[in-house]
Amino acid sequence: MKYTALAGGTGAAKLLRGLCQVIDPSDLTVIVNTGDDWMVWGLSVSPDLDTVTYTLAGLIDETQGWGIRDDTFRCLAVMATLGRETWFNLGDKDLATHLYRTDRLREGNTLSQVTDEIRRRVGIRSRILPMSDQRVATQVLTPDGWLAFQEFLVREKGRLEVRDVAYERSESARPAPGVVDAISHASAVIVCPSNPISSIGPILAIRGIQDSLAATQAPIVAVSPIVGGAPVSGPAGKMMLAKGLPVSPVGVAQAYEKWLDILVLDRQDSALASEVQSLGIRAVVADTIMRDRQTEVSLVRAVLKVLP
Ligand code: FO1
Asked: Is 59 a pocket residue for ligand 1 (Cβ < 6 Å)?
């Protein structure tokens, strides 16, 4: 069995960790959003690639959902003294990843190559692919104008009203090597419970990826990141409303309806199952809140059970 997952940040990483408890991790390819990528102090930071990598390597800071466990922020403190921006917190151990990535990119390597080097070095057996090797930047339109994703989410704490979300330069970006192949030749494609607009949206905006999702023989199953009318975490609700989608599993189904086969939604939303089915998408009700390792694995088993 070859599994391919589409992933964004925190929610995705937990499901992937559970998946790697149930399947052989070397049978998994993860296609990760890079629309959140950000330059800090001249360093290239890829938050979602790092969150997936750190989580699968057992390095993640569980409480924050990003960065490396037990990290320190001494460099950040000195940078503050020097008057540099420090609203985006880079830990001292986390810095090594950004220094390595920036150094290897400057030497002419692609983001795919560097990502593969890092995941191998930290002992991950699954493949981790950026959605593209070209830069695509998720932008958020707020009353203060267009902001880069990290300016919206971190600097402004996700508080501003969202009027639109765009994926800058997605039209000229191409799927990274292996991405289309991983979708076309998968036994199953799993869309993780990530923000449909700012985590999965950028992946879908890359030319060729939606087509390969529509064309693949593999069944495609998504786990709704929206439970009980709100996202489990983050700004997905505001972004879905900005895109004219209801903040519910139905809105998630609408966002993916061109290629999605099955949507797993939480028990709290079981009343919406028939509306999801009316879109031609099979609705499966399960407990989708991942509180601990055990519920991560039980959700994964519920997802794998619906696959033919
Ligand atoms: N999120 C925050 O809320 N505050 C931060 O200071 C912060 C720093 C940070 C550094 C590295 C990294 O990989 C992620 C970081 N994040 C931070 C999380 C990041 O904004 C989100 O993980 C994604 O962009 C959303 O999925």
From this structure: no
Could you tell me if the CB of 9 is within 6 A of ligand 1?
yes
To test the ligand 1 pocket, which listed residue (115, 154, 157, 194) has its Cβ within 8 A of the most ligand atoms?
154
250 belongs to a structural domain: yes
Q: How far apart are CA 300 and CA 107, in angstroms?
A: 39
Is pLDDT above 90 for 19? Answer: yes
* 6 bridge partner residues: 31, 191
Range of the domain at 206: 3-57+118-136+170-305
Closest to 138 (Cα-Cα) out of 239, 259, 256:
239
Share the mean pLDDT of the chain: 97
- Residue 229: what pLDDT? 87
Q: Tokens 């290629």 sit at which residue?
A: 259
Q: Retrieve residue 267's tokens.
A: 């028990």
CATH of the domain at 211: 3.40.50.10680
